[in-house]
């Protein structure tokens, strides 16, 4: 049986102060700004900015393992040698719902053509993820990461805390090559990032 304890007011307040101090040090960070605004969105959305990382500057390959909404285990080894588009999302996130059709369209375009899509659901249980997929006709799998957070931890160098959605393009060596922080509002940009990353391995 799981026991949950409430933090005392003093402990909770001190935690908020510490977080505020951390965020104050990042005054130009739009995520920090959204936190301070207290918009109560339930998520912190990115601004749609695109970051590309030159091959020579990419960090080490990311190793991951997780279980999808249908109970299948997936690992980074399953995607060895191919580009992966990793999208962090959850069902209650409005930008996630807005971008879902565009991501699925790109998934269809690149299926069998050098790139695979993999979702990472950061908040829901499997039933919610499956219902979302049915609503938006999403066919690629998602790792259910709400309990352990292992996927978020594996990609922590590329994903700001609480920035949902975030989409990463991972190269054939397992290194993050590009990031879209926030909703994929221009599918053509993501398509170009994917094509450029695939071309690197040719």
TrEMBL record:
The keyword Signal applies. CDD domains: TlpA_like_family. Keywords: Cytochrome c-type biogenesis, Disulfide bond, Redox-active center, Signal, Signal-anchor, Transmembrane. Its main location: other. It is found in: Cell envelope. Residues 53-199 form the Thioredoxin domain. One of its GO terms (biological process) is cytochrome complex assembly. The keyword GTP-binding does not apply. InterPro entries: AhpC/TSA, Thioredoxin-like_sf, Thioredoxin_CS, Thioredoxin_domain, Thioredoxin_ResA/DsbE_sf. Residues 1-20 form the signal peptide. GO terms for cellular component: cell envelope. One of its GO terms (molecular function) is antioxidant activity. This is Peroxiredoxin.
């Amino acid at each position: 049986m799981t026991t949950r304890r409430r933090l005392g007011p003093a402990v909770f307040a001190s935690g908020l102060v510490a977080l505020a101090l951390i965020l104050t040090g990042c005054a130009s960070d739009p995520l920090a700004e959204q936190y301070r605004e207290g918009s109560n969105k339930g998520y912190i959305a990115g601004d749609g900015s695109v970051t590309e990382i030159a091959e020579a500057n990419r960090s080490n390959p990311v190793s991951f393992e997780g279980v999808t909404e249908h109970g299948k285990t997936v690992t980074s080894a399953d995607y060895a040698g191919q580009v992966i588009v990793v999208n962090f999302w959850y069902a209650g996130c409005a930008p996630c719902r807005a971008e879902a059709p565009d991501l699925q369209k790109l998934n269809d375009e690149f299926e069998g053509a050098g790139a695979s899509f993999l979702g990472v659901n950061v908040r829901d249980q499997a039933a919610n993820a499956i219902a979302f997929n049915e609503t938006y006709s999403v066919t690629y799998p998602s790792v259910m990461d709400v309990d352990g957070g292992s996927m978020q931890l594996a990609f922590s160098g590329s994903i700001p805390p609480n920035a949902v959605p975030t989409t990463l393009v991972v190269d054939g060596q397992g290194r993050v090559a590009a990031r879209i922080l926030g909703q994929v509002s221009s599918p053509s940009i993501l398509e170009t990032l994917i094509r450029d990353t695939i071309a690197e391995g040719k």
